[in-house]
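Let's see one such:

===
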Amino acid sequence: MMPSRTNLATGIPSSKVKYSRLSSTGDGYIDLQFKKSPPKIPYKAIALATVLFLIGAFLIIIGSLLLAGYISKGGADRAVPVLIVGILVFLPGFYHLRIAYYAFKGYRGYSYDDIPDFDD
């Protein structure tokens, strides 16, 4: 009796594997592989960018009012750290909101894939 052939990678005997012949008329491509899926909108990342934008804008306004002396007479020693933190929080929020807006409007070169997604 002759030993049966087995696939070394999976250990399945070759007699149990079902094969089908490819059509000779096609070029191997199907239309479904070229269809573009609808974009996945990262709602959590856009919400975080909105919160960062609003907190940063609020801190920049408060820091500007502190620096101008409208809120208290503390001077620049209290205003500069508030302005720095406000700018550091404002910039990423503004950047990602801008990308989300341009992707929503459909501008060329912008997509929701450019925004980091936290659902991984």
